[in-house]
């Protein structure tokens, strides 16, 4: 007998609601459910990914049973084992490695959106390892850190038609990165009379509907933000009442931005000075203005933290903070926070002291977090510690390669593919090939899975419940239940890490038997019943405005959770870690030696700036390349230049090109696009799932993987951010056919 079950998609962060028809424990049909978040069936109607959910349940390429390597690493020889056999052996090997080297010998890597981060983080804390290797340094962490140290917590854009009078979209293109509710809200905003400004080197879909497009030179975003501040202060467009009452260090900032005249900024950023002035006036003269930044800003290396700081100052001096239609401070969650779920406080001081990041990234480490924690806790909120202390890949790889400062000999990979998504693929590959234990939990036999000791089958969309809370920095969660039990022998990540934990003495820390039970316990504190949540699809409490004016325990306004109690235009905190009081642009590090450039130019190649990581629907990072319909529409990896650049270089659409740095090279098909001249943008995450896994080609990851060119060497000194969007390369035409042709 057929039943209709509520469930959710997992193919992007929105986790859209479905109704699943279930017969005998199998899903036979899916349909959008507009009665639950995000409440708009047009979103799924315009999405190509959600239809994958049904096909992927029985996909021929899914990993369905625990697999153990029996041949050489990467040899693609496996034996099927039971879950008990796999978990018993993994636990025993981890115990032995910890006894020999200490628990810090274990590192982890995690991705999304088809995973819950906190179960792995909890396991790592209780095991005693601080080494969750992440790429948060180039995604999310920089903004969260700089928002928190400037405002006392994170801010989100409150885009309200009729209230928001100006909107800046900086370094993100939701038409491609999510193609969902936010993109629809931007289209609606673009149809209004309020100005929309897009800052992006490429003429994205957002830029195409914007009133003003600023194609900034990659890596100069901080200079541009300081230029906006110069215009606003010079023309006295400052909200003096707000600044005088609630901002610290305005006079210092005003002096600091004096050199950033429109003419100077225009020369640095490659923009018309008049457009810089116009944009600054639009933002400052609006009654309410909002600004949204994305990975384009998060991935500009040494300039990431100062750019976010300058953007924070831009919001503050115009009074666009915590007011309707502006940039609103989020609320802390009513439900159990990510920080508590991680059980980070259970990580002993001696293990915190072994954090690889100290002293290389003094903010993104346990010591930096411990110093910042009392600030946010002034107003009863705590940031998620494991995210904001995640071990820097460069330092984890060094510990794998050299054993310094101690050996990292084991890695657990959950729902990510480091051989495609981490910088410097050659280095990542060599480091992982030398491990004593590599465990991968995933849907498919990815290049990373193909070199593992164990590949464990992950339960995916429809098979697992979801509660998406975006790190627990807002009072919002959405998702719903599983429609069916996991097919075959797949398991939720929670079950895997609970199973390992129970084998390694963590019994008391895993009281809930299932992930749904854990989610129910998480929501209970907020007075939300799990079954009710599953019917509604969302828990959300709208934020209050002007929270800094609310009375504190002493009856006076509570202010902001910073050192001074005000928005810190000039930081009092960062100098305690050796950082600057004010945002300062930094020099970009070249990945092309003079010898490489000279040799390439002698062979007819050209030296150009490079950006990577631009999302392209329906792909997302290294995901969904195994979908035949997607590949039919976007069959090959692309390098884009402007028409003028192609003409100058003697290239035409369809030409084969090679892009290279000192680290390596990758090959693409050339296309032209509307974008800055003398710039190349290449597709990200490309591999060939249809190729044989393992050696020698490893799913084609050497062919067109831009991370063969990149480097994860720390660029920004506080957080350690490296660059994906402001690096240089050499580009040359290739005559011989490419390997996939």
TrEMBL record:
Give the signal sequence positions.
none
What keywords are annotated for this sequence in UniProt?
Iron, Iron-sulfur, Metal-binding
What the entry lists under InterPro entries is as follows: Asp_de-COase-like_dom_sf, MoPterin_dinucl-bd_dom, Mopterin_OxRdtase, Prok_Mopterin_Oxidored
Record GO terms (molecular function)? iron-sulfur cluster binding; metal ion binding; molybdopterin cofactor binding; oxidoreductase activity
* Family recorded in the similarity comment: Belongs to the prokaryotic molybdopterin-containing oxidoreductase family.
Keyword Iron on entry: yes
Q: What sections of the protein cross the membrane?
A: none
Species of provenance: Gordonibacter massiliensis
Q: Which residues form the Molybdopterin dinucleotide-binding domain?
A: 610-726
Reading the lineage from the top rank, the first entry is Bacteria
What protein is this chain from? Answer: Molybdopterin-dependent oxidoreductase
Domain Molybdopterin oxidoreductase intervals: 62-500
């Amino acid at each position: 007998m057929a039943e209709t079950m509520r469930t959710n998609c997992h193919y992007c962060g929105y986790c859209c609601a479905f109704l699943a028809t279930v017969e005998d424990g199998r899903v036979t049909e899916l349909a959008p459910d507009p009665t639950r978040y995000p409440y708009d069936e047009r979103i799924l109607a315009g999405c190509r990914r959600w239809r994958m959910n049904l096909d992927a349940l029985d996909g021929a390429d899914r990993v369905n049973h625990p697999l153990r390597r029996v041949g050489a690493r990467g040899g693609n020889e496996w034996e099927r084992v039971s879950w008990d056999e796999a978990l018993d052996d993994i636990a025993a090997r981890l115990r032995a490695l910890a006894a020999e080297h200490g628990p810090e010998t274990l590192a982890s890597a995690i991705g999304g959106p088809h995973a819950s981060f906190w179960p792995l983080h909890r396991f790592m804390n209780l095991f005693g390892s601080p080494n969750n290797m992440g790429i948060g340094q180039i995604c999310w962490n920089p903004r969260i850190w700089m928002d928190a140290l400037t405002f006392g917590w994170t801010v989100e854009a409150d885009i309200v038609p009729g209230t928001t009078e100006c909107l800046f979209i900086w370094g993100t293109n939701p038409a491609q990165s999510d193609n969902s509710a936010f993109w629809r809200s931007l289209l609606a905003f673009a149809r209004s009379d309020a100005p929309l400004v897009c800052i992006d080197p490429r003429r994205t879909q957002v830029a195409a509907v914007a009133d003003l497009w600023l194609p900034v030179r990659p890596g100069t975003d901080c200079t541009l933000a300081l230029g906006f501040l110069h215009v606003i202060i010079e023309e006295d467009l400052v909200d003096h009442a707000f600044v005088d009452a609630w901002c610290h260090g305005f006079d210092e900032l005003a002096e600091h931005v004096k050199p950033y005249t429109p003419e100077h900024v225009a020369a640095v950023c490659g923009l018309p000075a008049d457009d810089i002035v116009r944009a600054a006036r639009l933002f400052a003269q609006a009654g309410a203005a909002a600004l949204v930044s994305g990975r384009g800003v998060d991935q500009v290396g040494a300039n990431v933290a100062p750019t976010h700081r300058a953007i924070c100052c831009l919001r503050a001096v115009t009074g666009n903070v915590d007011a309707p239609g502006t940039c609103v401070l989020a609320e802390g969650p009513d439900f159990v926070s990510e920080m508590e779920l991680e059980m980070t406080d259970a990580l002993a001081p001696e293990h915190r002291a072994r954090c690889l990041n100290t002293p290389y990234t003094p903010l993104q480490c346990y010591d930096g977090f411990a110093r910042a924690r009392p600030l946010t806790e002034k107003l009863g909120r705590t940031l998620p510690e494991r995210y904001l202390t995640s071990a820097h890949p460069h330092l984890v790889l060094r510990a794998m390669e050299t054993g310094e400062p101690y050996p990292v000999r084991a890695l657990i990979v959950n729902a990510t593919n480091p051989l495609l998504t981490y910088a410097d693929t050659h280095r990542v590959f060599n480091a992982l090939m030398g491990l004593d234990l590599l465990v991968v939990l995933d849907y498919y036999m990815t290049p990373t899975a193909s070199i593992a000791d164990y590949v464990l089958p992950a339960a995916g969309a429809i098979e697992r419940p979801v509660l998406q809370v975006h790190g627990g920095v807002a009072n919002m969660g959405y998702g719903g239940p599983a429609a069916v039990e996991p097919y075959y022998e797949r398991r939720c990540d929670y079950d895997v890490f609970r199973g390992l934990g129970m084998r390694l003495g963590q019994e008391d820390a895993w009281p809930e038997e299932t992930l749904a039970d854990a989610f129910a316990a998480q929501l209970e504190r907020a007075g939300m019943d799990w079954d009710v949540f599953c019917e509604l699809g969302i828990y959300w409490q709208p934020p209050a405005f002007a929270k800094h004016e609310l009375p504190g325990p002493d009856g006076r306004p509570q202010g902001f959770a910073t050192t001074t109690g005000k928005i810190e235009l000039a930081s009092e905190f960062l100098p305690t870690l050796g950082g600057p009081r004010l945002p300062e642009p930094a020099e970009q590090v070249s990945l092309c030696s003079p010898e490489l450039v000279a040799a390439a130019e002698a062979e007819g190649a050209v030296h150009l700036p490079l950006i990577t990581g631009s999302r392209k629907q329906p792909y997302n990072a290294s995901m969904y390349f195994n979908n035949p319909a997607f590949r039919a529409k976007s069959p090959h990896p692309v390098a884009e230049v402007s028409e003028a650049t192609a003409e100058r270089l003697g290239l035409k659409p369809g030409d084969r090109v090679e892009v290279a740095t000192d680290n390596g090279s990758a090959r693409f098909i050339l296309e032209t696009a509307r974008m800055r001249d003398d710039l190349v943008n290449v597709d990200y995450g490309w591999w060939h799932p249809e190729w044989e896994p393992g050696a020698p080609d490893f799913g084609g990851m050497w062919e067109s993987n831009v991370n063969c060119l990149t480097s994860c060497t720390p660029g920004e000194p506080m957080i350690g951010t490296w660059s994906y969007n402001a690096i240089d390369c050499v580009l040359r035409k290739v005559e011989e056919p490419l390997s996939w042709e």
